[in-house]
Amino acid sequence: MVCWSIEEEPIIYSLNHFTSTNNFKEIKKFHGHLLRRGLLYSSFNVLTKLMCSCITIASNKNTHQTLDSFFSSISSLNQVPFNMLLADLSRTGFSSLALRTLSLMHLHGVQLDSYALCSALTAASSGKTVNFGMQVHTYIVKAGWSASVFVGSAVVGLYSRTLLIDDAEMAFHEIPVKNSVCANALLAGYGETKIWIRGLELFRKMPSLNINYDHFTLTAALCACAGLSAIGLGKQVHAYVLRVTSGIETDVVLLSSLIEMYGRCGLVSKALQIFNLSGLEVGVRQRRDVALWTSMLGSYGRIGNYIEVIRLYQDMLAEGVRPDKIAFVAVISACAHAGKVDLGLSYFESMIRDFRLDPGPEHFSCVVDMLCKAGELEKAWKLMSQMAEKGIHISVSLWGALLNACKECGNVNLARIAAKKALVLDPQNAGVLALLSNLYANFNMWDEIKQLSDLMKERKIKKDAGCSWIEVTG
């Protein structure tokens, strides 16, 4: 923590105020005042805060020039102000400027320490500028920083967040003395790329590497078990959590991971037990976090118990929990499958009106699917037109849902439009052509069927053969 002197506190407060109000003119005036009073270069805290304030609200065309001027104005090679600036830029989302700061530090002969390198790697990963991150990694190897577990963990995090898992593994193995931070960074990469088996292999190896499990490790392991439906190992992780973790009933992340794991493995009754235990503190029920509710809603939805999803959503509102976008996806989808169109539309309208949430593509898709299932083709088409006007991407599957509804209701004209839109997105989609062909067959439109057949031959489109799969153990 940075300790400010009495003189610095009002200066920092003023700069924060000008930044929050986006008042660049006042910051420039304040800059002149600090120069006249001789306060600017007497404190690295004030200098770096002023720089961050300027960059935060300056126009993009001036930020690089402002950054260059900042470096030119400081003759000291002390890393502290530069590290503070680099960290602030990385933390506030100015990834490219953070990386430019590192380049200027190197250019001006400022020594790069582990703090600067970790901040730069974080900026490179958040900005998806993996090539620059690789250059930093090369410098780390040449400068002898590879042995540092802190720098090594940042390198693993860079490759994990940019989904270069093989590089992340290599960086992990190069760290001589590992800890849970670098292991968790690699586990996060495995989870992001759904390579759950390798994630569980690392989880099993951690004790032999003298790496302790923490809450993030256990959460990652539960997510891997959920992805693989590995209920046996999932139960073992749950038992370990109960043995070593106190106060689990208030740990939202672990509890929601357990609910997800049991729900995805089909043990919804077990997921419900954990959900009912959540929020209990010394026998008194506390308001449960929305993440727990959405996990439980998803568990019921996956097994097709849509009536229970709707009931649980109503219980959530009764408990005074504000639903998020994920909860609305679950409950609107449940209404679609349960055939409760009016209720689903009321939830969609409530999302916008009562909770001030902007619906995303997934919410529109649920409503369109619900209207299609109910045969409300005109309403579905009107909503999809609104989506197009808002610039929301309409997927092939959504056009397929409208096409299938047209087939059921016998609406040939709208079916043609839906099929045309779907084939623009996926010209080789045999399922769309098959649906349209079936609709034509219902109306004895043999000439149109012949045209579709010729189109499939021309594009060399073949329908996939049906198949099924089972998991074999032993």
UniProtKB/TrEMBL annotation:
Return one Gene Ontology term, BP aspect: RNA modification
Which Gene Ontology terms cover its molecular function?
RNA binding
Which of UniProt's keywords are assigned here?
A: Repeat
- Asked if the keyword Ribosomal protein belongs to this entry, the reply reads no
- Describe where the PPR repeats fall, as residue ranges on this chain: 289-323, 360-394
Which domain of life, per UniProt?
Eukaryota
Keyword field contains Repeat: yes
PANTHER family in the record: PENTATRICOPEPTIDE REPEAT-CONTAINING PROTEIN
Supply the name of the protein. Answer: Uncharacterized protein
* Source organism of this protein record: Beta vulgaris subsp. vulgaris (Beet)
